[in-house]
Structures are given as C-alpha cells and as structure tokens.
C-alpha cells in the first residue's frame, strides 16, 4: 500500500508505536478472547505529561469464510478514520496472516484514561512493575502516539493475530465447525458435574453423533 499525504498519520503512528509487552497467550480458536491493554502516549505540546489508556480488545471466535466474504471491515468500536486504512493494510498483508482467510471481528473499549505528570520512562517502569506483580497472559503494554492513538492498538492487534494465526488455522482445518471442540468441552463438564449429563446428551444429539460417542457417554453415566 503506497504512502501518501492522505495516510501520513497512519504510517507515522504505525512507525512510532512500540509494543513493550505483548500477550503470551494466543487468540482462542473456538471462543472469544479478551486482550487487556495499557497504552501510553505523550500529549502533543506538553512536557512531562503521559496519558495512560487502559482497555480491552475483544477478538470474537474466528469463522471459516470464503475469500470473497472478507469484504467489510472486521473492526468494531474503532472510531479513528485511520482504522479503515489499517483494514486496507491488513488485506494487503493477508498472505502473512493466514487467519484472515477465516475471518474474524474485533471490537475494543477504553475502560479508563489517566493523565499523569511524570516522564514517559518513569510511568512505563511503574506499569511494567505492576504487570510483573499481577501476571496476565493476555495483557499488553504499548507506547504509542497521541494522535491517532487507535492505530497503536491496531499494530498490537496485528502482532497478536500473527502470533496466533498458525495455531488458529490448524485448529479450524481439523475442526471446521467447532463441533469436536464443543463435544469435548461438554464431556469435560459432565465428568466434573453429573448434572451436566443431559446437556452432554443434547450436544451429541444436536450434532447427530450420539451413537459414535455412546460408549463413552454411558461410561460416564455408570461412573
């Protein structure tokens, strides 16, 4: 995608965003993933001031789609006009992120925003210390730009998707509709709690595979 005066802000924000800490866990293949971020930016024309945005990015369960289905924006909750520039960039790099061929939707929300009087380095050290005290495999720390700050989150999202893509794609190829994952989850729930046996039976019947799993099902009943 060529860089033009019209998309300068997008490329500037992308180039000046540092992913200090990225989630160690991958995106869920068969469920929703909540990424917790802290984004640090320095307001323009301000000295020793740091804005800390805390929020969540919700990546919904991937779905298998045809290549032509990826026609609309996969982003929800991003208000910056540069978000659409990011979508075009994603499409141009689809070959690097195999999960895009399956399609997904993302939305984000900012939970808290704080303006602090201190140096960026000092604030960053405190945020990193807090993460070490309260480890979270789905947490991220990002140092970005004040405007357009959402592009900094989109860069984080791209990194997480690229990290997760191979495993997500492999899981989806092995279990395209997620039925096997749902059945195994239902068996685990019933093994922990016998009151979940009717729910397990309903899952097996809905997927029309009760006979295939009946020995395993009745073993749970007898136990």
Walk me through what this model shows.
- The protein is α/β, with parallel strands linked by helices and 223 residues long.
- The protein is elongated.
- Helices cover 43% and strands 19% of the residues.
- The chain has 7 helices and 6 strands.
- The chain folds into 2 domains: 5-173, no CATH class; 179-222, no CATH class.
- How far apart lie the N and C ends? 61 Å
Number of strands: 6
Radius of gyration: 22 Å
Q: Which H/E pattern describes the elements?
A: HEEEEHEHEHHHH
Total number of domains: 2
Strand order of the largest sheet: 1-6-2-3-5-4
Q: Determine the number of helices (DSSP H or I, runs of at least 4 residues).
A: 7
Mean pLDDT: 83
| Overall body shape | elongated
Which runs of at least 5 residues are low in confidence (pLDDT < 50)?
65-70
Report the biggest beta sheet as strand number plus sense, adding barrel if it closes: 6 strands, mixed
Strand content: 15-25%
Helix content: 40-55%
Find the structural class using helix and strand composition.
Answer: alpha/beta
């Amino acid at each position: 995608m060529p860089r033009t005066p019209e998309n300068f802000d997008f490329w500037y924000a992308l180039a000046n965003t540092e992913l200090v800490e990225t989630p160690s866990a991958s995106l869920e293949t068969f469920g929703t993933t909540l990424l917790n971020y802290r984004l640090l930016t320095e307001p323009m024309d301000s000295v020793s001031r740091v804005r800390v945005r805390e929020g969540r990015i919700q990546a919904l369960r991937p779905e298998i789609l045809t290549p032509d289905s990826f026609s609309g924006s996969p982003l929800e909750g991003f208000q910056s006009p540069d978000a659409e520039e990011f979508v075009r960039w994603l499409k141009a790099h689809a070959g690097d992120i195999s999960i895009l061929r399956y399609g997904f939707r993302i939305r984000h929300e900012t939970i808290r925003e704080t303006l602090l009087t201190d140096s960026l380095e000092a604030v960053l050290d405190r945020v990193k210390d807090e993460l070490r005290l309260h480890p979270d495999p789905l947490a991220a720390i990002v140092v970005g730009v004040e405007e357009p700050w959402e592009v900094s989150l989109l860069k984080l999202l791209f990194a997480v998707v690229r990290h997760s893509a191979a495993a997500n794609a492999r899981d989806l190829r092995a279990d395209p509709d997620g039925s096997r994952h749902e059945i195994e989850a239902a068996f685990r729930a019933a093994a922990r709690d016998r009151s979940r046996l009717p729910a397990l039976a309903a899952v097996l019947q809905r997927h029309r595979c009760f006979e295939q799993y009946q020995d395993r099902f009745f073993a749970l009943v007898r136990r």
